[in-house]
């Protein structure tokens, strides 16, 4: 079986550094009790402003001194450097110790008018500088459009997350059968062993089914990743799959 990914997308939460530290520490503390396996990668994606202050650095990442948790960011800009007020370069994130970057989340597409062409630029930059992209989609066409001109060996590095918009933050998770049908379509485009994830109202009660019944390689989790106990339950369920 392929590696499983458990990704916590904190979105624009929590609202103070103190609370962010509290959340990070409590996940880190509980994570110590989880049986370690290289087959499950747990990735936390806090807001940009907390990345450096949570004690994340490339040396810490190399030593895995924050207990095997890996860090990603929720977005990056579509240019690597230059005069772009208010933006964050993928290279800055890489230099800070991030390993992954979420690209094309539906909230970015909706509220920041991100198009497939912009997402394509972001994917290319992330790949060029060595961040692993987690591409979010809710339509099959977004895979090919987002990956335009990206070579096969690089396409293999992109993790693709199916997140039906209506399931995000609504408590109405997608049924396993429906999710599986979409997963099959994704695999037709990407190849049968390509890592695909499900996201949208995942919790500890529905998490396992997306792996066992729908055939995904992991989960992208919003709301439940802000509740350490619930998030840890999901991690434990993933570890038990092996
Ligand atoms: P949710 O968010 O788990 O709160 O539905 C998922 C996401 O937006 O990545």
Write the layout of secondary structure elements.
Blueprint: E1 4-9, H1 17-31, E2 40-45, H2 48-51, H3 58-63, E3 70-73, H4 90-96, E4 100-103, H5 106-111, H6 116-129, E5 132-137, H7 141-146, H8 152-155, E6 159-162, H9 176-190, E7 196-199, H10 207-212, E8 218-221, H11 228-240
Parallel strand pairs: 1-2, 1-8, 2-3, 3-4, 4-5, 5-6, 6-7, 7-8
Helix pairs in contact: 1-11
The protein binds 2-phosphoglycolic acid (PGA).
What structural class is derived from the secondary structure elements? alpha/beta
Distance between the termini: 8 Å
Instruction: Give the low-confidence spans.
Output: none
Overall geometry comes to globular
SSE run: EHEHHEHEHHEHHEHEHEH
Strand fraction: 15-25%
**Largest sheet, spatial ordering of strands:** 1-2-3-4-5-6-7-8
Helical residue percent?
Answer: 25-40%
Mean pLDDT: 93
Bound ligands:
2-phosphoglycolic acid
Q: Number of DSSP helices?
A: 11
Question: How many strand units?
Answer: 8
CA radius of gyration: 17 Å
For the largest beta-sheet, the strand count, sense and barrel status come to: 8 strands, parallel, barrel
